[in-house]
Model the fold of this input.
Amino acid sequence: MAISVGNGGYSGKRLHVSASQEPHRVQLVEEQLAYAVQNPPIKVITANGTSSASTSVTLPANALVDEYLVKVQAARAGYTEAKLAGEVRQSSSSPLEVVIDFGAMVTVSGIRIPYIVTDYSAHAWLGSKFDLLNDVSRVLKSRPADARYGSDSDVPVVYSFAQEIRTERLLLIFPDSISFATVQDKLELSLPDLPSDLAITLNGGVPVWQYAGMVQPGVASELGEEQWSDNAVLLVSLTSPLQALAGDATRSDSIPLTIELTSKTSGYLDIDRYSHSLRLLHRQSFNSESDLNFDYVMEGKLAIALDSPGTGQAKPPLLGVQLKLSADFPLQRALPPLGAAANGICELVLGNGKAACVRLDDIDPLVQISGIRIPLSTPSTRAEARVVLWRGKDEAPTEAIEAGVSAPQSWSGEDEQWLSFDFAEPIESSDADVFWAAIMVERGEVSWALAAANNSGHYPVRLGAPSGPWRALPAIFASDTSLGLVAGRLHVLGFAAETKPLAPLQLSLNTNSTPIELTPTKDGVSVQLLLDNPNGSSVTSAELTIISRALGNLAVSEVDVITKEITV
Done:
């Protein structure tokens, strides 16, 4: 018989099928050619199946990677070139027998090749041999026209199998008119399975992300990191592995990266950068030195000026700083860690039977008081004083503590000096205690400059004889006068509870930032501080403040300014 196909497929060309062929083959030819006439394809499905896809990007070596998402698509392929799906080899030349070895179980539903073949066969692998008794091939399904192809002989022809087969190897037997070179180069396979057992690698290394099993497309079109979309797209975070690659503040170059997606089963694979959020690190130097060593001979403050790199408009906004701090501080702490500045108005002259005392406020973290540090000066050739600890009420001290008498300090000089008055043994303290420290001058005269009181009226001062009683300062220093309340200046030395340790350091970035507490170690502790509103920051310089409640040497290293990523 002869069947003519009109304007749906082959420009009037006729396909002759011998009536001696099996009846089912003739029927299939009729069915498939009728389908081609009724449903004329207008475009060839691209052979887009592959077992890997990649994209190339660069990453600044000094980047802090906050987020890095790639978009992965792993869908069913239109067709896959046989040479990409497995090993293609020739097992016989007459007739031409071609074996495709997939190396794993693969579902195959048909082939495509730019030849009209009326007699070929396809056989599955049984584990030790091919199933030559069962031919799953079918004849011509359709041969669509496509402007990309130069002639009809270049247009691929679809041969669907009678049924899908799942096999490790596929045997195709072609007539002698087709060469192995043509099959090896042109043969394409219909692999209906979705990609499975996915992995992502960076520059050919070990997988940094894996997905076990077959991809399961969802029902929603929205993209996310938890579920595949309806067109088999998933967002994958590479934040952690990229953080490990970058973050070197001493480098200004970029790291080239090949991000590769692989699949155990061939399919349509694609991977591309979706979104990222980066900050950049810049190592600071101080007089050509990258490290700082600071000796806290007493509690106090270290200020470090920070600046964004570059000049003028090219300077990126500063977001924060990260640094490493190393120290081995003793357990003794000082509260408050910073001494209040003298107000320049009130200065007490003590000695010759006149003493003064100050209430110890804001010392709740301390469970033991080991000493008092007070700023004193003397107009005398030499002065000598000691501090006595009293218990009392909020208004005044009431009872001297016998064990709370410090060793005497002797000194000279009109310049103010912060003097330490240590007790022989620490004095136990509790929240219920109200302590006062009295300055007893035993030789000469001393001056104690006072400070303006804070809004809470802390560290009030009382006057009296060395043994009391104690009275308030003159009314001219009341809160409603022009001079206002005054406060004593001192540091209370002591120890915090082991169960509630008090960190020796307090760090802040600019005056408006919230301080953080830090306990450094000998080996060093890294810390990061950000401006209060880093995303809206437009500043290009800042001041890092490190306040110490302890004495000792502090090593500051690896000071890295954090800036926004900008494109110049």
